[in-house]
Here is the input.
Amino acid sequence: MITLTYPEQSPMINFAMDRLKNAISELGESWTMSSKEDPNTHNIMILTNNHDGNQSNELNIDSGLSSEGFQIQRGDNQGKSNIYLLASDESGAKHGILEICEQLQNQGDLSSVKECIINPKFSFRALKFNLPWSSYRQNESFEVQKETVRDLEFWKSFLDMMAENRYNVLTLWSMHPFPYMIKPKNFPKATPFTDEEHAEWKGFWTSLFKMAKERGIETYLVTWNIFVSESFREHYDPNAVSDEKFYHLGDSYSTDQIKQYNRECVTQLIDEYPDLTGLSTSLGERMGGMSPEERQKWVEDVYYQGMKDANRPVKYIYRAPFTIDPSITREAIEKNDFLPDPVWLELKFNWSHAYSTPKLRITHGGLSDGLKGYWNPDPQNYKITWMARNEDFFTLRWAQPNFIREHIKENGHDYVGGYFIGSECFIPAYDYSHSRDSDHFEWSYAFEKHWLYYMLWGRLLFDPTTSDEVFANALGRRYGQSNGQLMLDAYSSVSKMPLALASSFLILWDFTLYAEGFLSTDTSGYNSGKAFISLEDLLNTRPIESTYLSIRDFVERKINQESTEGFVTPIQLADTLEKDSLHGLELIASITKNDSPVLCCEKADIKAWALLGLYFADKLRAGVCYEMFVKTGDEAERQKALQWLEAPHAIKHWDDLIEVTSSHYVEQPLMHLDDEPFSWERFRPQVLEDIDFVKGLKKQVSI
Here is the structure.
């Protein structure tokens, strides 16, 4: 018997205790609840600063416990194991209970629970979630999400996942969400919904924010500007330009009435939704032609004043403007005394592709050297929060814990408050990529398929010292303990492929690269509007990672007999990719037991990444050989390039990739391709075009 003592009035603690009770029951143990410690049973006592339960005089609460931190102490009484969880707040207690739960699941008994003191590395651990309504992006991949994202059962599952993985912030992104949330008192016709429809929407948002709060998750609404609803334009501003693009990009258009409407929306939103934590908006879209000072003044007149007029204070995320000098942004934040500290300053890490190099090379606003004004000198009342955008893989599962650890180590300075994890082009709700007729399909939502991805980021943002054993055990609980470490090692090996590809490309905005599809859609550069990354594209690109040598730079150095020391050459990268890919394939081949359908699905994803790695490796080698032919005229080099592109090399790897992915994935909508569906098979003709290019049957394009 285990006696549980905890603050029963706390929804946040009750949420975690439900998990702990289930874990105890799964071990075959029974539990009971009591207001005090029972000397005749094992005990788990949850003690927070506002808990009135009895506390042993022997307990030593660590004075260094921060908000959301926790301490686990052990005590033994006449052969009974007692566990004491000490926390300064309910969030810390929640995290500590989940830690005890996990240790019980892994160790099997209460006596094996280890003492520890854990404080969160970052106080801001957020997921970015684009809403499909009033969406900044338009695509079928968003349209199919509307019903699921409106379902509170989806949000219960999603918020449970967030809480279990130690996330504490949900950011909801929508261009102009106000008509879906409020009926503006002075502009009632700005919302297109009937009173009944509006009541349904309000019930949805109220429940969503309440569920998040009960799990210790803050909620922020992130908007763009300067926007109004279509109904507002129809009823209050009929002279506005009637052009769809006008409401997405382009020159600014604002009237006193538009400012009043948006300002009152901000105030009314805060007042009608008391569980909403904060707001954010962008100082970019629909502000063309405005000076940096004019943009800032508009936000102050509308958003800041709207927040001041509300009945309660709210927190604020300041999205770093794309082209404004950091000193202007700093002054705008640091001169304000009404915003609760800290203000979260969002910066995009490596623009839209955090899954490249863990070193900060570029972001909206320029190269990294130009950003130092944000943190030198140290900020007074704000913290940097990195936007780690994933526009590179939505279908294949990905897991590379060392990359995340290196990311945090490289960028987790004192002036950094945390990270956003998420995507502009992918909503992890309805899973439209997987065949629903496949016996693999055993999950309800897309985020559940990518469970390990969310676990890795959430747990490591909370505690970067979390060991691989934690993740291997999680895999082991699903697929057999003997397979857990094998699966994690396999993922870790093959998941380096998209990082290598993204590091090899100087990539910028949202969908200029889609690594799992080997696609690039940057029409302003080398790709000339064709999505597939051809051999020609590899020859023309420049790496974003400064330690990588491009194919042309490498060949030039080789011909001139110049040193490549300190650089990663294309040949070295190819060798590493091949080694990692083959290692991943060897590991999954050794998994012969417990081949459940979902395990087969995960193994297929690992194999797909491995084949992409082998394909990329051979293509790099072909590129070096072809460039040597171009520079020297040596026909033997061209023949070697062809050998790397033909079977049993590049084309064979792509055909194997088609086989493994088509066995359980279907053609799917993809933001990067506009109205065209995506599958690996659709790009086989372009894989063959590389051979024609090397043979001289396709004209080379230089930039």
